[in-house]
Amino acid sequence: MAENLAGQVALVTGANGGLGTFVADAILAAGATVVGIAHSKAAGDAHGTRYHPVRADLTDPEEARSLIARLTAQFQKIDILVHVMGGFAGGASVAQTDDATWQRMMNLNLNAAFYVFRAVVPVMREAVHGRIVAIGSRQAAQPAAGVGAYSASKAALVSLVQTVAIENKDKDIRANVILPGTMDTPANRAAMPNANFDKWVKPGHVAELVVLLAGDAGGDITGAGIPVYGADP
To answer: 43: which residues sit within 8 A by CB, 6+ positions away?
Structure first.
């Protein structure tokens, strides 16, 4: 049975990205109101009246705090947070990784999540209900050479989500992280044109899993790191 999220308010970070657009559409299709947060406020009109695009830099702690306060005042609640936002950098060994790359990965993949979680969790605790779903990476669990900063930032994200789950289960707040392999997005196809796209993870499948975790069917799941590796074992 399809999940029914009618009447709920969902925040989707990274809503303009290759996965974020699928997630926003899937949650809208399930009946929720969606606030699509992105560094660029592009697009949104095509989603319909229940979609509200917002521009924000979530790597800025004060901007993240003020945004969540403003959205809470506007919508009176936040039922669901799907943290899709992130970034990738690779090609250098740990010994060759420069400070800028390390900081960029931590800012995009860990710090932004921390700032948003810190602001959203009190809202959910007051409501005694909430669902948090973050998008991690297969490389959080299975690191590879040349992506040390990326894999470390995603592994830390997993730990952060699992800690949020432990700390807030008393208030019916569930927090989980999905660990996809290579996503079949236009950007990845352009970066790896000779790859076998059939083995890659389909964004629509991940979006469907997000909706399940956000709905009643996901009520018994918390603190999980869920592998979604596609056809590549």
So the answer is: 16, 21, 53
In this predicted model, what pLDDT tens digit does every residue of 104-119 receive, in sequence order? 999 999 999 999 999 9
pLDDT one-digit tens code per residue, 146-191:
999 999 999 999 999 999 999 999 999 999 999 999 999 888 899 8
- Work out the mean pLDDT of the chain and round it to a whole number: 94
First-residue to last-residue Cα distance in the chain: 29
The per-type count for the chain, helices as H runs and strands as E runs, is 8, 7
The closest of 42, 81, 67 to 210, measured between CA atoms, is 81
SS (H, E, C) 54-112: EECCCCCHHHHHHHHHHHHHHHCCCCEEEECCCCCCCCECHHHCCHHHHHHHHHHHHHH
Quote the CA–CA distance of 14 and 36 in Å, as a whole number.
7
Contact between 84 and 136 under an 8 Å Cβ cutoff? The reply is no
Domains and CATH numbers, the chain: 9-228 (3.40.50.720)
- At residue 158's C-alpha, the angle toward residues 163 and 149, to 5°, is 130
Query: Which 8-state DSSP code applies to residue 230?
Result: T
CB-count exposure of residue 196 (10 Å: 0-12, 13-18, 19+): exposed
CB 89 within 8 A of CB 150: yes
- pTM of the predicted protein model: 0.95
Which tops the pLDDT comparison, 41 or 9? 9
What is the C-alpha separation between 111 and 87, in angstroms, rounded?
12
